[in-house]
Design goal:
The structure holds two protein chains of two kinds. By secondary structure, chain A is mainly α. In chain A, 77% of the residues lie in helices and 2% in strands.
């Protein structure tokens, strides 16, 4: 066994690097967060003994439950909207000429070059009372008074959809790219019209992409506190805002850590669901 | 009782200005095994797609049993396709794959169960009903694809190079299996392939296509023994083509000069006059290899010998530089029959075994199309 280790020094070095990386940057921080969530708040040192479950109890407070549920709701609406826009978009994208596809995917990725906080402020400029949309509609005479767009739930959802849509489109594009045209042809050949083909062939075969896209949109949507900060005002908080406020404003690390653990658990639950659905679909060989 | 089942009239198709099929006419008879044969890009797959309804012709009409199906979408055509890569639904079991077409027809459950079981038994996969496609071998997937297509009892089955993904041995056994299925089901098969050997061994009739135009249509034997042109002659089987010139005409014979030797050949069906260039086709098994001392034939040198078990194939280079392939059966009376490389021989053939073709002026292509 050791002989083998000496014979493949490069392979072992790479593996070691991966293990160190995972231990130092994934396992240790998470253990620290879980540990913190079980400690007591200290006004000077941030943390102190004894161990307690009180932080988790406080999360059950109706105030926080409501924030959590509202956050869940906004993330869900964002995800559904991203799916409704992204699914046909990815389908069409996979259908266009290969030369154009590269360009279109490039355009899809270009916004990532700008910091998302900056882009959130750009959305704010559009939605503000004297912003582009309102002044445009006013000068066209469509409306007399500026619409109340900013600092609403709608504004937060617009921001989240705008920032997260590419994360829905890319995995969906990948499954539509893999979807063999012959399968759709075979379905028609066997007597299925457009709708039955969509329901029995296209949807089941693109489901892994749907689930991947949902995960990539839903989970970040719960945590993108700056979107809620910039566009949502005081009433439209995300779980991410609660966590951020506990750490930076209230200085209550244990409680913030408990909220983080809850969010991580929600994430883990969704990932498990994803794995389960993939196994059910079978390891599709070509 | 062979009546026309499907008829194609003046069908043309072009992609981006490039003609793929050019005013094609073809009749497919009820219950026949018809093969569309041609090199890649000849339009055979496009023709199959047009029949299946996946593409629309630019011109022309397709009628099935007297009714036009030109404008019908694939789901409303009473014919089914076996796709090149099988196109089995990966998320469904074998049973569900085969049942798919019947479920789309909204057949009662009992009938579906019975018909699926029946057809799976026909392709000897009755024990694999609960497997997923990825758990099957290539040959088994192939048979599921056939079962799925024939369970709908189509009038016509379209097969798009269905054996091309299989290895040689499996191919051979699937060829026999397909022939058996076609006999048992009694439905017409339209089989697309670029493999001329496959086409010859399986078909009742073969249609040779090139550049969207039918080169010849006939039984495998007609194509092999009496090719209509040089393309078919070279594409089907091995061909030795000797250039010649007509020197004189008789009522039923031609006087020609082939490779410098005068010969008297049967007069072909096409119009010829003295001075015309012709090509004389001889299959390798029609070639006679003679002792160098004989006063007949054309002298040459054996440059390659290939032991094939039942035959000895030898390649002989003539003095003109042309190479001739000869395929001789072993002679029971001559156990030492063989050639050594570099051996001098003479090449000839029995009068009447040749086939005369007009010379289309194109150079002889390299080996293998």
């Amino acid at each position: 066994m050791f002989g083998q280790a000496f014979r493949q020094p490069f392979k072992n070095a790479v593996l070691l690097l991966v293990w160190v990386w995972l231990l130092a940057l994934v396992l240790v921080p998470n253990v620290l967060v879980v540990g913190t969530s079980l400690l007591t708040r200290d006004p000077v040192d941030f943390l102190t003994l004894p161990f307690t479950l009180e932080n988790y109890q406080r999360l059950m407070d109706p105030l926080y439950v409501q924030v959590f549920l509202h956050s869940l709701y906004m993330a869900a609406v964002t995800t559904v909207l991203c799916l409704l826009i992204g699914y046909p978009f990815a389908w069409a994208l996979a259908g266009v000429d290969k030369r154009w596809q590269t360009l279109l995917i490039f355009l899809l990725i270009v916004p990532f070059w700008t910091n998302s906080l900056v882009r959130t402020y750009a959305i704010k400029m559009l939605l503000a009372g004297n912003g582009l949309i309102n002044s445009g509609l006013q000068s066209l005479g469509v409306i007399d008074q500026p619409l109340e767009l900013l600092y609403t739930e709608t504004a937060v959802i617009i921001g989240l959809v705008y920032l997260l849509l590419p994360f829905m489109i890319l995995p969906l594009y990948a499954v539509f790219e893999d979807l063999k045209k012959e399968l759709v042809m075979a379905s028609h050949d066997l007597g299925a019209g457009r709708l039955p083909t969509f329901l029995h062939v296209i949807v089941p075969l693109t489901l892994p992409g749907v689930i991947a896209g949902v995960l990539l949109v839903f989970l970040p949507a719960m945590g993108m506190f700056y979107v809620a900060d910039v566009l949502g005002g005081a009433r439209n908080l995300l779980v991410g805002n609660v966590i951020k406020n506990q750490f930076l404003d209230a200085r209550d690390w244990p409680f913030g850590a408990a909220a983080s653990v809850l969010l991580t658990l929600a994430m883990a639950f969704l990932l498990l669901a994803h794995r389960f659905s993939r196994r059910r679909l079978g390891e599709e060989g070509a | 009782m062979t009546k026309t089942l499907l008829s194609i009239r003046g069908v043309a198709k072009a992609y981006q200005g490039r003609t793929v099929l050019d005013a094609l006419d073809l009749d497919i008879l009820d219950g026949e095994f018809l093969t569309l044969l041609g090199p890649s890009g000849c339009g055979k797959t496009t023709l199959l797609r047009l029949l299946g309804g996946f593409e629309q012709p630019d011109q022309g009409e397709i009628t099935l049993a007297g009714e036009s199906i030109t404008a019908l979408p694939p789901e409303r055509r009473p014919l089914n396709t076996v796709f090149q890569h099988y196109a089995l639904f990966p998320h469904m079991t074998v049973f569900d794959n085969v049942a798919y077409g019947l479920r789309m027809e909204k057949r009662p459950r009992d009938e579906i169960r019975q018909r699926v079981t029946e057809v799976l038994t026909l392709v000897q996969l009755q024990d694999f009903a609960t497997r997923k496609p990825h758990q099957l071998s290539g040959g088994q997937q192939q048979r599921v694809a056939i079962a799925r297509a024939v369970v709908k009892r189509p009038r016509l089955l379209l097969l798009d190079e269905p054996l091309s993904a299989l290895d040689y041995k499996l191919r051979r056994s699937m060829q026999i299996e397909l022939k058996r299925l076609q006999r048992e089901l009694g439905i017409a098969f339209v089989f697309v392939t670029h493999d001329q050997e496959e086409a010859l061994s399986m078909s009742d009739r073969v249609v040779v296509l090139k550049d969207g135009v039918i080169q010849q249509m006939g039984t495998p034997r007609e194509l092999y023994e009496r090719p209509a042109n040089l393309f078919t002659a070279r594409f089907i089987g091995e061909a030795n083509l000797f250039p010649g010139r007509v020197t004189g005409l008789e009522a039923h014979h031609l006087m020609v000069e082939v490779l410098g030797l005068p010969r008297r050949l049967r007069r072909p069906a096409f119009a010829v006059s003295a001075g015309d260039a012709i090509q004389v086709l001889l299959r390798p098994e029609d070639i006679r290899v003679l002792e160098p001392s004989r006063d007949a034939g054309i002298p040459g040198v054996v440059i390659e010998r290939n032991y094939k078990g039942s035959t000895l194939d030898s390649l002989i280079e003539l003095e003109s530089g042309q190479q001739v392939l000869a395929s001789e059966f072993f002679d029971e009376d001559d156990p030492t029959f063989d050639y050594s490389l570099g051996e001098r021989v003479r090449v000839s053939w029995v009068d009447g075994w040749e086939w005369v073709l007009p010379d289309d002026g194109k150079p002889v292509p390299e080996e293998g199309a």
